[in-house]
Structure formats: C-alpha cells, structure tokens
Amino acid sequence: MITVVLCQALGMNEPKPEKRPTPKPTRTEEARRIIEEYADDLREIIRKLRQRMN
Questions:
Q1: What are the residue ranges spanned by the domains of the chain?
Q2: CA distance 19 to 50
Q3: At CA 40, angle to CA 34 and CA 46, rounded to 5?
Q4: What is the helix (H) or strand (E) element at residue 10, kind and residue range?
Q5: pLDDT values of the chain reduced to their tens digit, one per residue, 54 residues
Q6: What pTM was computed for the model?
Q7: Which of 7, 27, 26 is CA-nearest to residue 15?
Q8: Cα angle value 39/23/38 (rounded, 5°)
C-alpha cells in the first residue's frame, strides 16, 4: 500500500504483479482426462460400428 501511494505521489507507474505460470494438473486430473478421451474414442468407434450394421 505504501508503495502504491509513493508511486502515485511521484507520478510513477505502479509495480505490476508477477505473472505466475498456470499450475500443472494433478496426476489424478491428468489420468481422468486421458480416461475420458479414451472413453470418447470408444463411444465413437461403437457408434460407427452400429451404423455399419444397419
């Protein structure tokens, strides 16, 4: 807060907050994402096979 007031009084720009990199997904989240992609692929394969049978 003191830094902001001092910067404004001196006509300086406020210091910019540091940008933090986005956190890596946890192992559980990553595993869930991979499993969901696999399940989606299987659903698509089943849908295509059903279309061929009809």
A1: 26-54
A2: 50
A3: 140
A4: helix 2-10
A5: 566 666 666 777 766 778 888 888 899 999 999 999 999 999 999 999 999 987
A6: 0.55
A7: 7
A8: 10
